[in-house]
Amino acid sequence: MALLPPDPVYTIRNVDNTPVFSLAFNFLPGGLERLLAGSKNGYVYAYNLQTNRVQQKIKVGQAPILHLLHTEDQLVTQEKGGKYKIFNLTNSGYQEDTLIDMDYPGFCRFEANTKLKTLYVPDRESQVYIFNFAGEKIGSLKPEFSDPKLGDPMCMKYIELAPEKSYLLVGYEAGWLVLWDLNTSQAIGKLQTKECPMSVDFCKDQQRGIIGNASDVIQIFSIGRKDLSLVHGTDITIKNHGINKVQSRLDAKVFVSGGWDGHIRIFSWFSLRPLVVLTEHKRAIQDVVYSTQKVSMWNANIMAAGGLDGVITLWDLYNQKQ
């Protein structure tokens, strides 16, 4: 008999069952542990992970919150339609400090270098603009090659392959993955992928990356250590089409995909085989994130998933207990 999938350690019903578009763990001074949920109604709900209840409601705008980032003292949000807001965390709550309005209709999420307080923001016609956290435009990444046509950016991943060596992986509408050198703003490698990439991640320890797209195939690729070339690797076939999010865990042992079918699939980095398929969600998964620190309630690094069913599930899977 096949083993049944494990249960989540906790299930949160988002406020009014509002669909969840983005998630971010938030560890604040004083031991406060929270999970932020960017929702369809323009709110970010902050759940206290000691009580799993809403501790704070942050009104951002009217549109769905596609992406979230929290630094030590700032919250960065991305609304559908291209508004990026930076809030300062004060003793009285969050105060909006910066607005970047790109009038961008797509779903590509921004990326960031938090050390330099730099945002990489997608735009039309294959462009990515670079802003500082003060909202000043400080650069851009624009392909010089006209063939092939790339289309709009669909997904991005900021990576550091060596000290002072920063790069941005960008997946484009026409199915190309391009590696940008952020020190020179030049495209230094490209790879034709299967269909339109929806999400990309890269594991430095494995020197391999993952691409999720609208097909029933998850693609694995690598970056050459010397020439930084992008090389196609293994294809992993899944049962149903459509992946909204891929994410590698920090310990480089497993990675996860969140699908249009509501299924969460966890794979081994070693074998590239699926370890489990989680079927708790009833509609498409929009985001899956791993905590960067152990959550004290479960003494483990927790995985959180959220989607269009308005449910957030928390999981403790394949963690080594100490």
Question: What keywords describe this structure?
Answer:
single chain, 322 residues, mainly beta, four-stranded antiparallel sheet, globular
Plain-language structure description:
The protein is built from no helices and 28 strands. The protein is mainly beta and 322 residues long.
Q: How do the strands of the widest beta sheet line up side by side?
A: 1-28-27-26
Largest sheet: 4 strands, antiparallel
Q: What's the N-to-C terminus distance?
A: 31 Å
Q: Work out the radius of gyration.
A: 19 Å
| Quaternary organisation of the protein chains | single chain
Q: How many β-strand runs?
A: 28
Q: State the helicity in percent bands.
A: under 10%
- Give me the number of helical elements: 0
What is the residue-mean pLDDT, rounded to a whole number? Answer: 94
Structural class: mainly beta
Percent strand equals over 45%
